[in-house]
Design a protein that fits this description.
alpha/beta; Rossmann fold; seven-stranded parallel sheet; 6 helices
Length: 171
């Protein structure tokens, strides 16, 4: 393909998953909203589980900056999506949808979370999708190196790192 033809091809925006608990702390909720806003400001599409807590806060942040949000829902009811989801995708497969959430993205940002978040982290790592952690799980297995979860100290650092890692995977 010629350089001219390549230059005319549309560039797809990065898709970044935001994963986290349905019952976040106030600090986690604020971080999620800031992450969503920063993703939108960087023209990334936000994908999440589409419901409440961290998911809702991240979508709210993205919408406040004019971003696009996608919610991968566990049920077959699009009304289950939080009001900040632009594109609700119903699956009817329950928590198995966690694999779809992270598989859709080029990187994931995990904020806080419980066992559902832990499963999404595990799926992402298994699929080779980079994970950035912001106050989330720390894992270890005796005799094995720690999993490659990239740690961030702030929402802005988490977004910058996720976008950088996603761009590395695109090249």
């Amino acid at each position: 393909m010629s350089d001219i033809a390549k230059a005319q091809e549309p560039v797809r925006p990065l898709i970044i998953a935001v994963i986290g608990g349905a019952s976040p702390t106030a600090q986690e909720e604020q971080a999620a909203e800031a992450v969503g806003r920063a993703l939108a400001e960087n023209n990334a599409i936000l994908v999440c589980g589409g419901r409440g807590g961290v998911m809702k806060a991240a979508c709210r942040g993205a919408k406040s900056a004019g971003g696009l949000t996608v919610g991968i829902l566990p049920s077959d009811d699009p009304g289950e999506a939080n009001p900040y989801v632009d594109i609700p995708i119903t699956t009817g497969i329950g928590l198995a949808r966690n694999a779809i959430v992270v598989r859709t993205a080029q990187a994931a940002i995990a904020i806080g979370g419980s066992y559902g978040t832990l499963s999404e982290i595990g799926h992402a790592l298994q699929f080779g999708i980079p994970v950035v952690g912001l106050g989330t799980w720390r894992m270890e297995r005796e005799g094995h190196p720690p999993p490659p979860i990239h740690r961030a100290a702030s929402p802005q650092e988490a977004v910058a790192l996720a976008l950088s890692l996603a761009n590395q995977g695109q090249s």
